[in-house]
Amino acid sequence: MNVIYIHTHDSGRVLSPYGYNVPTPNLKKFATDATIFTQCYTVSPTCSPSRAALLTGTYPHQNGMLGLAHRGFTMDYSKHLVNYLNNNGFHTVLCGIQHEAGSYLDHEAGANIIGYKEDITCSNSGYRQEDLIIWDQKNADKLSKWLDSYDKRKPFFISYGMYATHRRYPDIIDDEINENMVKPPYPLPNNPATRRDHARYMTSAKSADICFGKVIQSLKENGLYEDTIIIFTTDHGLANPFSKCTLFDSGIGVSLIIRVPNSNTKGAVVDNLISNIDVFPTLCDLLGLQKPNYLEGISFAKSFEDHEAPTRNEVFAEVNFHTSYEPIRCVRTERYKFIKYYDTSYLKINESNIDESLSKDFLLKNGLSEQVKYKEALYDLYFDVGERNNVIEDPRYENIKIQLKEKLEKHLEATKDIILEGEIPIKKEWKVNKKESKQASSKDEGDYVSLGR
Q: Are 287 and 326 part of one and the same domain?
């Protein structure tokens, strides 16, 4: 059985299989022949930590990927899924983005560091960030040609990664998208600036969908569709304020759609809790391979036999560094979420941890800098889907608060979380903004704690 891992940047669940009016028809059609997981959550809502967790089956505080790879953070690559599959007879191929080793645009170095046997990624030189969706399209064509000539002597593992829907979005909105008739996803307000911003996201998502469709069609034309486990996912929520780099569901909620040949649950929906750290052990079970002993995830392979099969009772997530230091931990059950902010000396908004955008500009003009974070927060997700009503002091929730605090503390202790030792020391090789920094890409050296030199 082959495996293809298709992934976008920063898409959350804002795609048509999850009910959003986003032009992704190829993905929606695929979802009718696959299994949709509606309650999958990343263990970290920033790019490299999320991907490192999925691809090692360990938490960021265990694998070392506490921040972004292109800012100097690294991990133990011997535990990467690619090396595990290399050792189990797979031919591993990188096509496009990876974000676990060095710069995500330096695909050749990343492939070598991680251990891919083959890198078929096209050159991305000469593109503006707004135009990198063209690179995605060229990589989709390159992968299709590779599949045409695949010799089938070994099973393959292919990582096809797209820049879309990363910022900066295309600056020309697709002709079929009327920016006046789009609705920005929660928690953004609906106004001309946020509508234009979301229309540009939709343009990027449409390009990703075209690329996805090309790859799926190529698998079918080459007789590989029924011999391949197909995984579609993303790393975290949209790059909007109060989404990416937060532990709200708008930050940690991710799409996960998997097609397993001969599955009983094609076209079904799994509403049980899943963590993206569970993908690695699930693949082991589906492929009949022995699980490495370092995995922290829980296999959900039985979900492909019965969509109501039990999975897990809670998921955990964390933030350490994005551009600035912002240590946060949470535990989420089906109904409740408890979030704890560990840097109580800075409970303002870490503005550099929010990507630059029209939506951020609008909120900055209207008081974003004056917003604050709670030291601790408890949300009843049945009655407060948007996580805006903190009931941590409500006596009706006292027992829930105690239970979730205990669950989180046990998790931190069991996984030897570095946060239990206090403030995480910043290494000189990491590029880290000051907490007060306004922009991630500031040219003022005074805006950085460390420049990663």
A: no
